[in-house]
Amino acid sequence: MKLVNKFNPLQPEWKKNIQSLQMSKTSPPFQNSIAFVYQFKTKGNINENILFPSIPNGCIDLLFHLDGIQSQCLLVPSPKKRTFLPFSAYSTYFGIRLFPLQKLFPFQLSLKEINSEKAFSLFEVAPYLRPLYELLLQKHTFIEQMQLLECYLKHPRNSQLYSTIVASCINKIIFHHGHLHVKDLEQFTGYSERYLRLLFQKELGIPPKTFLQLVNFQYIINDIVKGDFHIEKHLNENLYYDSSHFYKTFKKFTNMTPGEYRKILVDEV
């Protein structure tokens, strides 16, 4: 999994509802499983909920509510399309964004089951994280929480075991920014589309075609956030036949065009 940490999975609209944000990478031994760790404080009035627009990013977020409300500790999978998640207003969260095929945090549900819902109560899916949560509540700064997490990760639980076939495919997909077809993965691995679909469903909870589109979508989102989006760049690649095919795929994840999505981000600045 040498290339996965080059993938930058974003939720750019979350910033609309955040009054403060801190982010950090973990130390190198954990960077193939964890995209980044973050802490944010939500806007709004206490005892209310606030809706966070979320887009597909292929990752899982573990969210610890640092104001002590266990029911607000969540496991949030990548949504199938842009959706809205309720968070506690005027609250502080500590989050861990996990890459696909992360090996550090086992769950009591399959990824297919996890991907079927918007969110889960964290301790229903990973009850062993309760002691970590109790320790996080005792820390007062993001640096202290990061140090605690790093210490915790040095004593791994039962790690997840994954097929080297899927891991190799993910590396190739990320290297090519998702600009591939499933037939390219067939040629790369020597396995049939049907077998690859079975492996991806088992280990990622989604079929390879969806994962290809999702990775490419996130690279487009990164370009939009950086102000460097040019449709010609993506039409010249291998994934889209024409502009209508490109827009159809983007709308599948957001219900809007790239220009409309960019306007949302600009209006929120």
Automatic annotation (TrEMBL):
Pfam family, one: HTH_18
Protein name: AraC family transcriptional regulator
Organism encoding this protein: Lysinibacillus halotolerans
Domain HTH araC/xylS-type: start-end pairs: 164-264
UniProt GO MF annotations: DNA-binding transcription factor activity; sequence-specific DNA binding
InterPro entries linked to this entry: HTH_AraC
Keyword terms: DNA-binding
